[in-house]
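#help-structures
NK: newbie question, is this the right format to request a structure? protein is ATP synthase mitochondrial F1 complex assembly factor 2
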Amino acid sequence: MWRSCLRLRHAGRRLLNPPRGALTASVRPGPNPLIPARAYAPPTERKRFYQNVSITQGEGGFEINLDHRKLKTPQAKLFTVPSEALAIAVATEWDSQQDTIKFYTMHLTTLCNTSLDNPTQRNKDQLIRAAVKFLDTDTICYRVEEPATLVELQKNEWDPIMEWAEKRYDVEIGSSTSIMGPSIPARTREVLVSHLASYNMWALQGIEFVVTQLKSLVLTLGLMDLHLTVEQAVLLSRLEEEYQIQKWGNIEWAHEYELQELRARTAAGTLFVHLCSESTTVKHKLLQQ
């Protein structure tokens, strides 16, 4: 996970050099239209206007510099992140852009903007409640009654992760073939609310983002606990769709594009949560290798 964050050009030395000016760049990237409505609607693309990307440490955390300009959020706040590792990951997004800046690919930047600006003005309790509410419509809690092959596939693939979650958190979740979904016990909600309360606000923004991508709190918890890989979680969230593709065939390029996009967003959200919830220090000698 960490190696993908440490690939800025020139072995990262340039990241630690302070900018020579105090001009600011109020660049306003956001998510693509497929991610939650709470996030910003970005310009689709823009010609790259900077050559070098660096990070510096300020009083409020780590800042991103585009040439000699400090990056800002859509609400014109100084773009400052709490950890050096997250700053390097965001800087990598900016540094990897080619002649054209494709804002819809910069999911870490978007998540940081959302955390800094909090455009919907939600507090920690509201973020937690929003994530837990997904239990009512959790992808792996809804089962079909036919065809028999899909019933068996859901049982074989979804039951193990459901059993893991129930054992891991000592709760009952269950599944249902009813359109009303399963009846989630109040204690289950209370336990999961208490668990999510252990995360900080930044990490909770990432958790809700991943839950929205997968349409599953259970799969998201599996990712956060490193019980599932991103590839496994995404395929489990698309189990019925993949079944239909196997049966009826693939729409040329469209299904593969959707799959890769979902993997990218889920991976970015998962990385964001871990970088925001762990005490991480990047050793400078790693940047110099």
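mod (FA): yep, format's fine, and the tokens are attached above. Strands lie at 24-25, 45-47, 53-58, 61-66, 69-71, 80-81, 100-102.
NK: thank you!
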